[in-house]
Write a structure and sequence with these properties.
The protein is an alpha/beta fold. It has two domains: 181 residues, NAD(P)-binding Rossmann-like Domain (Rossmann fold, 3-Layer(aba) Sandwich), CATH 3.40.50; 202 residues, FAD/NAD(P)-binding domain (3-Layer(bba) Sandwich), CATH 3.50.50. It contains 16 helices and 19 strands. Strands 3-2-1-4-19-18 form a six-stranded mixed sheet, sandwiched between helices. A hairpin with a 2-residue loop joins strand 18 and strand 19. Helix 1 crosses helix 4. The structure holds flavin-adenine dinucleotide (FAD). Flavin-adenine dinucleotide binds next to helix 1, strand 2, helix 2, helix 8 and helix 12.
């Protein structure tokens, strides 16, 4: 009986959950190779989920179990499209699963969106999480007294919460000392989280929202009118109930103010005399049933830092069609032998857990539709990488990075990540 050979591109939740299912259902009859462009696995669990939410980051343990099965091999630091083409991968394996996520920020697309001081949430959260491709954002924070976070989902909450937290509140995190001192050194007085739609349409989950009410040095302000909307109008009853609960609490005087504002659609980021962003003009909107309509009124809010948390797009590999911000697919299938899962499949929404059932369904489909065809698989790809001089990192290399990061953690921190690829590779080699 010949082995089924499957390549998975991306070791975030979706890719790991495909490996988990294939390994379990086709145990002993499948060879699974997982490629990631980074030397480290786990996608956004490592490089997106907030560093002060280590319980959520613990999802990596389940993902690691799948990756440690004997039928799975990790090829970290191998980018498909750079080190190997997708065509070469498809020729070598019976099936290829794209689990590449949605790493591009959806731009604000308004005048002034490219001003210094305006940043996308992907760029911001990559910096906070020591992603090796991230640019240093410390300069954006050095003068920031007023921050506007645009978006009404949990990523907006993550950004605002990390801007507001004190040093004591980020103990037990894996924030690096440089990032922590930039965040805590910012002279912030006001942070506003601003949503385009009405409060009834907020996307926050209750736990994340309630956490904003318990910050040591930030007092939360909510317009009472936003907490008095028709409860029937909301598509997120638990999130809206949390907003109402928070709005009913007394407002304490604290070092900074964190406000939640709704019905404001950004129209322009406006520069100050120094050329950096100084304010954002919004158009007030109102809700008409499920629709959000613009009014004649505009509002200008001062801001020296703007973080746009309004969504992401996938990157489209050569030869694959895009469909909005995701890859065109039919129930996870792009073409015979080519599948897609996770955020690349359905667009940038859904928690880590949502990817699991969906990745399992696509893995089941792949097993039903794909015969083993004596393809060259792992051996050919490993040889090709070696010939090209690519420095791939296997699972034991990642385990050495993991151990080195844990060993060099400052007191009170769970790890100190390497933010530099070269350092990661040196640690993987045991240097
Ligand atoms: C800022 C942020 C915070 C979040 N916080 C939470 C949270 O607290 N709780 C929660 O449940 N969910 C959270 N999520 C959502 C969760 O992270 C996603 O549901 C999940 O990560 C999507 O998984 P994925 O595998 O599709 O993509 P990703 O996690 O993005 O993984 C994609 C992987 O593919 C790799 N890759 C991309 N292109 C290539 C290529 N060409 N070659 C090789 N490798 C490639 C990437 O390096 C990456 O490792 C958050 C998301 C964001 C953006």
């Amino acid at each position: 009986m010949s082995m089924l050979k499957v390549a998975i591109v991306g070791s975030g939740p979706a890719g790991c959950y495909v490996a988990e299912r294939l390994g379990r259902k086709a145990k002993g009859a499948v060879e699974i190779d997982v490629f990631d462009r980074l030397p480290t696995p786990f996608g956004l669990v490592r490089a997106g989920v907030a560093p002060d939410h280590q319980t959520t980051k613990a999802a990596a343990r389940v993902m690691a179990k799948a990756m440690e099965k004997p039928e799975v091999r990790f090829f970290g630091n191998v980018e498909i499209g750079r080190d190997l083409t997708l065509d070469a991968l498809r020729a070598a394996y019976d099936a290829v699963v794209l689990a590449v996520g949605a790493p591009e920020d959806r731009g604000l697309d308004i005048p002034g969106a490219d001003l210094p001081g305006v940043v996308g949430s992907g760029a911001f959260t990559r910096w906070i999480n020591d992603h090796p491709d991230a640019a240093d954002r410390g300069g954006d924070l050095a003068q920031a007294r007023r921050a506007i976070v645009i978006g009404a989902g949990n990523v907006a909450i993550d950004a605002a919460r990390l801007l507001a937290k004190t040093a004591a509140e980020v103990e037990d995190s894996d924030l690096s000392p440089d990032v922590a001192s930039a965040l805590q050194g910012a002279p912030l007085e006001e942070i506003a989280i601003v949503g385009r739609r009405g409060a009834a349409h907020l996307k926050f989950t209750p736990t994340e929202l309630l956490e904003l009410g318990d910050l040591a040095e930030a007092s939360l302000r909510i317009d009472p009118a936003d907490a008095e909307q028709d409860p029937e109008a909301t598509d997120n009853p638990q999130g809206y109930a949390a907003l109402k609960e928070l709005a009913g609490r007394p407002v304490e005087a604290k070092r900074l103010t964190l406000s939640l504002r709704f019905n404001l659609q950004p129209e322009e980021c406006i520069a100050g005399a120094d050329g950096r962003v100084a304010s954002v003009r919004f158009r007030r909107t109102r809700s008409e049933g499920d629709r959000t309509v613009a009014t004649n009124e505009t509002v200008e809010l001062p801001a020296d830092l703007v973080i746009a948390c309004i969504g992401y797009r996938t990157r489209t590999p050569d030869g694959v069609a895009a469909d909005g911000g995701r890859l065109a697919n039919e129930e996870g299938r792009i073409a015979p032998g080519l599948y897609v899962v996770g955020w690349a499949k359905r667009g940038p929404s859904g928690t880590i857990g949502v990817n699991r059932a969906e990745a399992h369904a696509v893995a089941d489909r792949l097993l039903d539709e794909t015969p083993a065809d004596d393809r060259p698989g792992r051996a050919a790809v490993a040889e090709r990488l070696e010939t090209a001089g690519a420095e791939s990192v296997d699972w034991s290399g990642w385990s050495r990075i993991d151990a080195a990061e844990t060993a060099r953690a400052e007191p009170g921190r769970v790890r100190r990540k390497f933010a530099d690829r070269g350092e990661m590779i040196a640690a993987a080699r045991g240097a």
